[in-house]
# Entry
Amino acid sequence: MKSEPKLSILALNYLVLFAVVGLSFFLVMPINNLALFFLLLFMVPAAHAFIVSHYLGKEFNKGLEFNKGLGLAFTISLPVSIWSYFNQLKYGCFCLFSCTCPPTPSYYEYPMFTALIVAILLFIYSVVLQVRGKRSRGFGVFVGLIVSAVVFWALTIIGFWS
# Structure
């Protein structure tokens, strides 16, 4: 039984991830619906993470715990990302020199602070899981945290500039 993946398998997985991201970008470019465009652009790489973890589960018997960690991070952080998108969509305003933007409400920064607290808690949980010997699940939480952070910032920026 293999205990660690070979470097060539990991490199191939990253190559496939970049290929999937690039392919999904070029597939959704002609779509005129902005919401569908970004939904496809960000969900295809997330689906790729689950596919790779399923492959690792078959090959190295670690995929189920990795998926649980990945799913936990997505489940917790995706509502905060959607909240931030709608918050930026409603209250986001860009002014460089002469500000004509109305004042933001007192709760404008809540999604960002909530995302920061959730990210810190997920990171601590990931480290605790890995220290206790549940490395696959802890690594799944860590990878989910990274992907969730990218999705959070992408949705925040998209909401701000929409």
